[in-house]
Every structure is written in C-alpha cells, then in structure tokens.
Amino acid sequence: MMRAWMSFVGTGFSRTCIAATLVFFVVTYGTAAQQPQSRISPHEQTSGVIDGAHIKVTYGRPSMRGRAIFGALVPYDRVWCPGADEATVLDSDQPIQLDTLKVPAGPHTIWILPTANQWTLIVSQERSGFHTQYHPEADLGRVTLRKDRANPPVEQLTFAIAPNRSGPGGSLAMTWEATSVWTSLTIGR
After folding, report:
1. Do 54 and 35 touch, CB atoms closer than 8 A?
2. Where would I find the beta strands (DSSP E) of 51-88?
C-alpha cells in the first residue's frame, strides 16, 4: 500500500495536483485572513480648526440600536470611554484649553464620568489605549461639561469641534441618545 502511494506521489501529474491544491488553499485562506473585518462601531475622525490650531477626535461610533444608553448601557457614576474599541483620542497641533484645563499639544485619550446631574470630561496623559482600560493615575485633569437635551435623539455617538460664531475659541461637543455635552475650547498661548 505504501509503495502504491509513493509511486502515485512520484508521478508528475500527482505532484502538479498537490501543488495546485496547496496554492488554492494558501491563496483562498491566506487572503481571507488579510481581509479587514467590518466593525459594528465604525471608526471615524472629526476635525476642526480653532484659531489656527488643527484639532481632531478619533473614536469608534456605536449606535443606539434600540437600546437605552445613559443610565443603562453606560451606567452613571462610572468612568466611561466615549466610543468603542480603542480609547477615544483628542489631538491638537497646538496647546489648547478646555474650559480651565490646559492641555499640551499632541494626542490624549479622553474619558467621561456621567452622573444623573453632572458630567465630567477627563483628559489623560496617555496617547492611546483600549476603551475599557482607564488609568486614573494618568489623568491630566478634569472639567465639568455643560449638558443639554438632544432633541431629536441622536442614533450614533457623535463628536463635533466647532469655532465660535463670533470671537475667538470654539467648543468640543459630544452627542448621543438624548444627551448633548460640551465644553469651551480655546488655544493656549
């Protein structure tokens, strides 16, 4: 039996069949493994220019999909990364100031502490991270966010960077479900 197999494998036809089969599997499964997987929460970037500074927020954009969000999926009184997958990153090519907090140029992960009555933005010194791994010892600082009701509700988590309509500065805002929170944004000198 072994001799029959060896003589079969030794033929040019069988070597060609085996080689073709190997190439088929490598091409089929090798390229399938390289195909990017679609994410439930797409990753996006929003950007703006405030008084000459280029500012961007990179984040995963989860959707409500019929779920209650704040006080349910996102519990109150626990630090939350406003996004999905990787930690949300605020990046600026110049020093900025969020309300009273001075933030050096460069990338910083951002977090939010929502409560029933007050929301707090936390800016970290960390440049990147995973959205479930908050490290309080890396906090650069915190600011209280202004909060308003979003009407109609917003299906997908959305960040916005907008200049003031009159005068210098602008704002950094986040809206999702029926909640909108924001803080003033000025350029540090």
Report:
1. no
2. 53-60
Strand partners, 146: 182
Residue at 153: amino acid letter? P
DSSP state of 93: S
Cα–Cα distance for residue pair 23/53, rounded to 1 Å: 52
Report the pLDDT averaged over residues 12-16: 52
What span, in angstroms and rounded, lies between the C-alpha atoms of 81 and 132?
Answer: 7
> Terminal CA-to-CA distance of the chain, rounded, Å?
84
| Better-predicted residue by pLDDT, 34 or 107 | 107
What is the pLDDT confidence band of residue 17, given thresholds at 50, 70 and 90? very low
Give the global pTM: 0.78
Distances in Å between the Cα of 14 and the Cα atoms of 18, 27, 123 are: 6, 20, 64
Distance CA 119, CA 152 (A): 20
Q: How far apart are CA 96 and CA 74, in angstroms?
A: 28
Q: How confident is the model at residue 132 (pLDDT cuts 50, 70, 90)?
A: confident
